[in-house]
Fold this protein.
Amino acid sequence: MPYFNLFDSVATELNIVEQNLITSIDTNIDILHEASVHLIHAGGKRLRPAFVLLASRLFNQDITNAIPMAVALELVHMATLVHDDVIDNSMARRGTITVKKGWGNKVSIYSGNYIFAKSLAIVAQYNRSDLLEIMADTSVKICEGEIIQMFSSYNVDIGIKNYLRRIERKTALLIAVSCQLGALVSNAPAGHVNNIEKYGYFLGMAFQVTDDILDLVADEEILGKPTGSDIRQGVITLPALYAMYHSKHREELREALASPEQCNLNTARIIDMITDSDGIDYAHYVSQRYAVKAQNQLKKLPDIPEKQVFYDIANYILDRDY
Amino acid sequence: MPYFNLFDSVATELNIVEQNLITSIDTNIDILHEASVHLIHAGGKRLRPAFVLLASRLFNQDITNAIPMAVALELVHMATLVHDDVIDNSMARRGTITVKKGWGNKVSIYSGNYIFAKSLAIVAQYNRSDLLEIMADTSVKICEGEIIQMFSSYNVDIGIKNYLRRIERKTALLIAVSCQLGALVSNAPAGHVNNIEKYGYFLGMAFQVTDDILDLVADEEILGKPTGSDIRQGVITLPALYAMYHSKHREELREALASPEQCNLNTARIIDMITDSDGIDYAHYVSQRYAVKAQNQLKKLPDIPEKQVFYDIANYILDRDY
């Protein structure tokens, strides 16, 4: 994906993060080590570490001190993925087998707990209770979001508020916290920490809406998972919500989205109804609005060259076309 | 159980802990609230809160400050219980897993995560990174222990070292940390924190060995679960380990303990072989040795009346008979 290049200014540090992810899982319990290393090798965009590092660089040229924090935030993200895999029965994530498929439910649960606990232990090394408090509070909110997500499946009566709350907990919160913690380890002033945190929040919202669009329109090779995965799992996203109100087939669509069987068997037909309804355009508009809101936060920060990359990342959303 | 009375000196505070356990789960997500409250009402001996409070009282008469910590430690314990209850779906693989069953697991995983995150958020309120660091490090070790436990089931080749490591992670660690954190919130001197932590460790080991004996010899009504539950679940405890070396039926016993089917069907016969082998006496001796080690740590603490209850708790182990 093109926005990888946007992280070039912290590429050296991201490489160190990658190595440290492995060494952070330094257990001598074989199965735990294997499951965790497998998960790390499965890769990912390392969005959260990148935001920690970039936000840290805004307030301090030397971002060595931000590297453990970047590792910790990727570990939190990974821990939620392992637990999500148990839950969703997903057989494949990012093209490789999931921990669940390889090792079973119990190992997935304990690996997730282990990785999460490790991330806290890393943050504890900073000897700053403010950082750990943010991690703890964020985790509480993420857990609440997972439950909301779970009870929203196949529920065609949920509205946009529920959707926004779900993607906030699923994505925006952790990107916001990545920016916040990156700024905090560089001892940024409170007002600026708040600005970059809000930037992360709005950008995270924009990212997730974009992802939800791509799930419906992108090719399987680009996604690394089958097109329409959300629909198959009963996850009702913004384009679908729009279509349930505005599609000329809205009755048929509602019925289909409420039925696990139809979501699985008639996925292509459901996607057609959504894309025919301008649902994609609407979601595109919403993602752009969030990207603009993110950029507005940047205006409140000092005018330094390190700020440009944050504009560029938001522009990547603004310039997209579907 | 008689040792409930040993907690009389902190009964008032334990009542507040009980109320705060409920209010600490202050989510507006219904299912999360219900699952958590259900768990709290299921009760338990509240051993960990009691040790937090008693250890705190050793160094400060006013233990109000220790109450949130006591709540947090019970929440950690509860979170591990919820995750232990999640069962492997492998047996349902042939058919499709029912939605109900899937949701049962989901709720368990997210409730456990939520309760754990909540406990961290409570500890974060102390604004002391040393306390949170201990919580994080302990959680890492508990996760490792859960994996060890899992891979030790029905494994008749494991030795005493594996057993001790398992019960350390399962019980001793959290009792030790309860004592440690209780002392720390009362700002005890480092040396004394260390003594009471070690007391908790040795006492926790003694408790778990005692529990493992009771699982084989106590009546169902006293245990609150069927006699021989460990054997049925393939958990090989100290009396069984001893018997596998010293029973005259050691070959038969080894074979039985390695077989999930026999563990389930021939539980009574397996218990007989273990009890006939002096395995109970041996475990009894080990538990007493740990209780003495615990008491030895107390000698290093100042000679104050609040110390007596810690002797009494260890004496409760020393005076047992089977």
